[in-house]
Amino acid sequence: MALTRGLTRMGLGDVGSNERFVKLAREYGFQAVDLNDVLGWVEAEGKETALAVLAETGVAIGSIGLPVEWRSTEERFRSDLTKLAATAAAAAELGCTRCCTYVLPATDLNAAHFMALATRRLRTCADILGAYGIRFGLEYVGPHHLRTRWANPFVWTLDQTNDWIDAIGAPNVGLLLDSYHWYTTGQTADELAALRADQIVHVHINDAPDVPVEEALDNGRLYPGEGVIDLPAFLQALQRTGYSGPISQEILTQSPPTAPAEELLSRSKAGFDKVFAAAGL
Amino acid sequence: MALTRGLTRMGLGDVGSNERFVKLAREYGFQAVDLNDVLGWVEAEGKETALAVLAETGVAIGSIGLPVEWRSTEERFRSDLTKLAATAAAAAELGCTRCCTYVLPATDLNAAHFMALATRRLRTCADILGAYGIRFGLEYVGPHHLRTRWANPFVWTLDQTNDWIDAIGAPNVGLLLDSYHWYTTGQTADELAALRADQIVHVHINDAPDVPVEEALDNGRLYPGEGVIDLPAFLQALQRTGYSGPISQEILTQSPPTAPAEELLSRSKAGFDKVFAAAGL
Amino acid sequence: MALTRGLTRMGLGDVGSNERFVKLAREYGFQAVDLNDVLGWVEAEGKETALAVLAETGVAIGSIGLPVEWRSTEERFRSDLTKLAATAAAAAELGCTRCCTYVLPATDLNAAHFMALATRRLRTCADILGAYGIRFGLEYVGPHHLRTRWANPFVWTLDQTNDWIDAIGAPNVGLLLDSYHWYTTGQTADELAALRADQIVHVHINDAPDVPVEEALDNGRLYPGEGVIDLPAFLQALQRTGYSGPISQEILTQSPPTAPAEELLSRSKAGFDKVFAAAGL
Amino acid sequence: MALTRGLTRMGLGDVGSNERFVKLAREYGFQAVDLNDVLGWVEAEGKETALAVLAETGVAIGSIGLPVEWRSTEERFRSDLTKLAATAAAAAELGCTRCCTYVLPATDLNAAHFMALATRRLRTCADILGAYGIRFGLEYVGPHHLRTRWANPFVWTLDQTNDWIDAIGAPNVGLLLDSYHWYTTGQTADELAALRADQIVHVHINDAPDVPVEEALDNGRLYPGEGVIDLPAFLQALQRTGYSGPISQEILTQSPPTAPAEELLSRSKAGFDKVFAAAGL
User: Fold this and answer.
1) Which candidate from A107, A110, A167 shows the least CB-CB separation from B116?
2) Contact status, residue C157 vs residue D110, Cβ threshold 8 Å
3) In chain B, where do the E strands start and end?
4) What is the CATH number for C153?
């Protein structure tokens, strides 16, 4: 039981195919990658090939992204939903037990009505994922500028998200925690540490620039250890909850980095080395 | 299978004890009464006495009010919830199969967060009521002045309420329809008639004064047939859905009527006679 | 609101493609057909073509069969489940609002454990169907010989099935009633009439040979009106519940009939004419 | 996060009032007690008094028993259910987060039908408990003699119970593990260690006499460390899951022990000292 190091494709430039991404992750000391197209991988290369790559490298799939747009029309939701079970089946076959989606902090719709629609739609997604042994993580999004980007406030705090998870009411729904949202919503380490491990499905780790917290942009993230977030405290708080699983970097930037993937991976590794060491992990 | 005539205490002045209320209802040709204190009645008079009054008069209990405040704090909700099962048990023993609550169209809380809290709380109520064979009706509230009475819009239309019922996701939750809210939300008879009977738990009937619809006050209601709502069309639309059950008057006024109960009951009877006849019922 | 006449392919010999089946149904006075391959139809012919055939004939799709085997292994269930959402989407696009599955009255598995597995699996199916506005009907199966065909008794009565539906707990699950199972489980018309309309998702109609009821075989069914079941009483009881929807014939026989489809359809029509007339419909 | 030492009243003779029980527990080095009458305690002594006793001793309430008989008639269930919310409220006010019930391995009812009834009833209980932040543990019961004590087999293994928990489908339902049932169902330590911590609500610890496992009687239990169960392996397996919470002794015997409570508590303490030390805890 431990916190493991994970990657998303965000912030790594072009890491190529899933196979190359997995092998690079391994090379730079990461134990998990988050993928968005497991079904495509399995359909194109075959389950056995994908499993062999994972087995050979010892890298796990940390999480898949939800292939269903639940924030738009009912038609779009119904159409996307047709592919969820096959995606979940492919992920489960590759040993993945997490699927995540993010929640924007504001909406142009009537906020209460949208909450009702979203609750029903996400419960349906959770039920399908649950049939394949996959847990479903909701990521609240903290940056201040997004809270007023659309007409009506939605939810963006840990407590609100936990209340929403209770409203959804499915046993396999929990939190995707991101240090960037922890920081931009002004939470303490103790608030984080008060969670039960089973409330946490997945974790993202990112750093923030040295600007007033109200000005930290969602796509202005830094590599772990390069900014002002107290990431050792974040990691120690997670450790205190008993959470065991991947901590995945997801560097959203205004434009994609242009450096070679190897350079960016090396930088990421250095960041993880720094903050994990500072946390005593 | 038929639409039956029902009463609430609202608009009748002082009709006394539940026993007197039931007997008066019978005397003026009503087949159902909505009660708010069935548990008190059973505890004070005994189940057998209450059942005897109902059997002797042939009057049914149309619905009980929800004895749980779900719009306030979690502490209040938890405290009130301790009495729900006993209330539901008493209602079920008296043959009642409906419990209802109303939904204000605005809130001072974050609307999305409150929707999440309310969804979870009402599902818990529904589950408890369901254990006693009781269905749970949600009444959306249409008057325009209430939509801006609190800071943030909540939900107040038929479609929004149906979406919320889907979000709650319990098999025994449906609509309490009120002609006053049907009128103040500008719905057509065809929209009403498009409902399935099983979506409707209970019905209220009231009339509105001849003022612009935007100015119709929630507590400015008239007796059926004394105002401008097309109540025959309302009743015919309900008939088309296949709904079978009580249609209960609930005259909310700025100050309680001071006339004797018998006079108010007589007036109510005349109103029902008029609109039921006009509807061909 | 009415009981309409429906057909399944069982007992009709070779009625050809879905298009031909629909047109024959229309020709012989039927208003609904149950189909098992709507997704295949839509994929092969296109949604517009299928919709045009239905619109031109005025025939509705009464129900689709559940394309998921929930009685076998978890692997099989997970694999089948990947196609349910797409099937439900296709059915919904063609206006179908019902999906049904049957329940065998005995099992070789531990009955309690199988009930737990089946409850969870069918709830997942119900949730997916519900996302497309489709209700899910469970058909209990009455013939005595099947109750001992496998080692352990499961459930086979109306009351047990209703209790199971409550255990599944999804708002869109109800009964598929079949006159053959009504007859072989020895129920009265009053027991049937005591159901609420919303408890009934779909109805099958079949007749039984003049043998002791314990000897009526599941695949020994007769066309309506050719046997000993009091089908007028069955139809009148359904009418009393307020049920509105198709009544579909499903003639299971030891070997498929060899007569031309037109002859079998004509015979079916005569049977419906007889029992519907006797029921006063 | 640690495994703590807990007591039930079973096996301790007369430990008197809850207050005395709590103080004795403290005196003999236990950190938790399971209570069955928290509502009575709060009603008789007041919440503040009870809280003071707990605060003063540092002893927690490990679990309460479910005050609802769900194995009998619907009438009994409905009647008992009226007291559950108040009991849960009292438990929550005293800081308790667990409620448990046991599952007999056989039944005189149709096993599948009873499973359906029990699934629905326990889900209702779980929903009410969940409103007060209380988790609900189901204890499967392993002794062989009970499997044939009633006519039809029900469920009695870890895997079956987990499948049932999935069928119940509430987020706050999990396992009450008991070393006696772990032993009598022949499970390995690795099977136990494969559980996720969040699947475990509560744990009982007991020892078994040196008889063939098939002859170990449910009410023939020994104090920890006095019998043949590999309790260090049991505790280590729990530790590996990440479970954090009480391990409570529950010595069911054919007749209650007659020795003074202090002697029995001392014996219990010695047993815990022995097996916790052997487990390296």
Assistant:
1) A167
2) no
3) 3-7, 32-35, 60-65, 98-103, 106-107, 135-140, 152-153, 173-178, 200-205, 245-249
4) 3.20.20.150
Nearest to A264 by CA among A80, A54, A28: A28
| pLDDT at residue number B142 | 97
Interface probe for D, chosen from C70, C71, C110, C121 (most Cβ of D below 10 Å), is: C110
Contact B85 D82 (CB under 8 A): yes
Give B196's contacts in chain C (Cβ within 8 Å).
198
pLDDT reading at A48 higher than 80: yes
Residues 53-72 of C with CB under 8 A from B: none
Kind and range of the H or E run holding C54:
helix C47-57
Q: What is the pTM of this model?
A: 0.97
Judge whether C192 and C169 are in contact, CB under 8 Å.
no
Q: Could you give the percent of chain A with pLDDT greater than 70?
A: 100
- Strand (E) or helix (H) holding C5: strand C3-7
Q: Which of D84, D92, D132 is opposite residue B85, by nearest beta carbon?
A: D84
Please report the ipTM that was assigned to this predicted complex: 0.96
What is the residue whose two structure tokens read 């974040």? A234
Provide the shortest C-alpha distance from residue D122 to chain C (in Å): 10
**Mean pLDDT within A274-280:** 97
Which of D79, D121, D128 comes nearest B128 by C-beta? D128
Q: Are A3 and A231 in contact (CB under 8 A)?
A: no
Distance CA B272, CA A12 (A): 73
Give the single-character DSSP code of D8.
-
Shortest distance, CA D250 to any CA of chain C (angstroms):
27
Q: Hey, is the C-beta of C173 within 8 angstroms of any chain A C-beta?
A: no
C201 backbone dihedrals φ, ψ, rounded to 5°: -95, -40
Q: What is the pLDDT along chain B (281 residues), one digit of tens a residue?
A: 589 999 999 999 999 999 999 999 999 999 999 999 999 999 999 999 999 999 999 999 999 999 999 999 999 999 999 999 999 999 999 999 999 999 999 999 999 999 999 999 999 999 999 999 999 999 999 999 999 999 999 999 999 999 999 999 999 999 999 999 999 999 999 999 999 999 999 999 999 999 999 999 999 999 999 999 999 999 999 999 999 999 999 999 999 999 999 999 999 999 999 999 999 99
Answer whether B170 touches C (CB < 8 Å): yes
Interface residue of A83, A127, A129, A173 to substitute, partner C, most C CBs within 10 Å = A127
Tell me if chain A has a CB within 8 Å of the CB of C78.
yes
Q: Does B117 touch chain A (CB under 8 A)?
A: yes
Burial grade of B84 (CB within 10 A; 0-12, 13-18, 19 or more): buried
Of A115, A153, A169, the CB nearest to B115: A115
Classify strands B106-107 and B152-153 as parallel, antiparallel or unpaired: antiparallel
**D78 in contact with chain B, both atoms CB, cutoff 8 A:** yes
pLDDT digits (tens, 9 = 90+) for D23-58: 999 999 999 999 999 999 999 999 999 999 999 999
pLDDT digits (tens, 9 = 90+) for A119-170: 999 999 999 999 999 999 999 999 999 999 999 999 999 999 999 999 999 9
Domain count, chain B: 1
pLDDT at position B2 is 87
Give the whole-angstrom CA distance, residue B222 versus residue B209.
7
Q: Is residue C1 predicted with pLDDT exceeding 60?
A: no
Contact with chain D for residue A242, Cβ under 8 A: yes
Asked if D116 and C153 come within 8 Å (Cβ–Cβ), the reply is no
Preferred mutation among A71, A73, A113 to probe B, highest tally of B CBs within 10 A: A113
**Cβ pairs A/D, distance under 8 A:** 24
**Helix/strand/coil for D274:** helix
- Measure the CA–CA gap between D131 and C80, rounded to whole angstroms: 36
Q: Which domain range does residue D100 map to?
A: 4-278
**Inter-residue contact B259 to B8 (CB < 8 Å):** no
